[in-house]
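FAQ: What does the model actually see?

It sees only this:
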Amino acid sequence: MASSTPRRRSAAASKGGQKPKAATQRASRAGASGALAAGAARASGERARRRSTPLIQQDGAPSSAPSASPAAGTPSASPAPGTPSTQKPAPSTPPAASRKAAPEAPAQTRPRKLHRPQPVAKAVPSKKAVATSGARTTRPARRTAAAPAGERPAPAAAQARPLKAVRGDGEVLRLPVPAPTTHVPLAPGIEELLKAGVAALRMAAESSGLSPEEVEHQVAGTLSFLRRRLTGDYTVDEFGFDEDFTEHAYLPLLRPLYRKWFRVEVRGIENIPSEGGALVVANHSGTIAMDSLMTQVAVHDEHPAQRHLRMLGADLVFQTPVIGQMARRSGSTLAANPDAERLLSKGELAGVWPEGFKGVGKPFSERYKLQRFGRGGFVSAALRTGVPIVPCSIVGAEEIYPIIGNMRTVARLVGAPYAPITPTWPLLGPLGLVPLPSKWIIEFGSPVETAHLGEGAADDPMLVFDLTDQVRETIQQTLYSLLMQRRSVFF
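And it is asked to produce this:
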């Protein structure tokens, strides 16, 4: 009986201890739900104060927005599980009641920092839009020195279009249009290169003994010639004569030989008429027909009217590649009576070398001895057109390629009239093509008039032969006279 009494007491005590523990758990659950409700109310109140607070506040003005106390609505710390709580648990409050009671809670005021507005991005037009509209954004202009002399200005279209500047607030300002410039300088660097090139040419001319002004004139003429060739600004007559090519390309190539190598001396240039047709008849020699080329340069450069000598050549000249084309462009044509009469009828100055290949290919032992002048075809052409015949004697061409032999077999194989052997050819190979620097003299004799004989005189064979022999003897006697006056072959 006594033992049962303590057991009942311990059971009652254990029942009594379980009741406070359950109450403590319920109180902790209520405190947690109250803390959640208080946090939600505090967050909603903070959002309401931010909406009512102005963005910019005057300096020194106190903030009127209520501030929630950090202790308001904050529950006490809940005890750890298994530990008896020493404080009285807060009563459980529903969430709805907490949200309504939160704004009415007393707020503690505190100084609030000034709100700084964040910068707003401006709308900047793209490069494509600016280029399409013609507007230009405001950009601080750089202060630079004056533009150099070689700087190219802006295009005329960009100068004529008014300039625009866009402000930050969107306002468009129209700036004054700069005055257009008429001077278009060269690009930077080109002017300096041209000056350096001209200076180099002047130095080269002075070192070689030439006049700098003459060299500059030649360079300018060459550039102008290239421009005309590219644009097609030149004319060609019915015979293929290209005057622009002859004056600016063909004759300049021959002038160094004419002036420096052969040192040609011209006499009697006044016997060539300044206008109208005339026929120049000369002796032929030199293995290669250099005498005809030098005569052409002499007539153009020494005559006051700078007339072009239209030479009459053999068929082989025009059948040779490159040489035939250059001969056509330089004014040469076929040595036939129809072509010669057409040239003379138009008032051209024609030149003929009646000896032909017999005079050019004769051996050095027969130098300055004229060969037969053919059948007098040049005389009949002069008689039909009534133009004067001007005899021409050339000394110095016989010594440039002295012929000491002839390879007839080789000549027949290649279809040439002769295959010469000279002291330098073919022994020295290509160097044998360089002519010897002999001293030349070209003399134009008194003209033989044919106008008074009439057109019918061309059909009289005896008259034609007499005029042919007269011209031939005049040239031969002049050659003998010049050989006597010449001091040396090379001086």
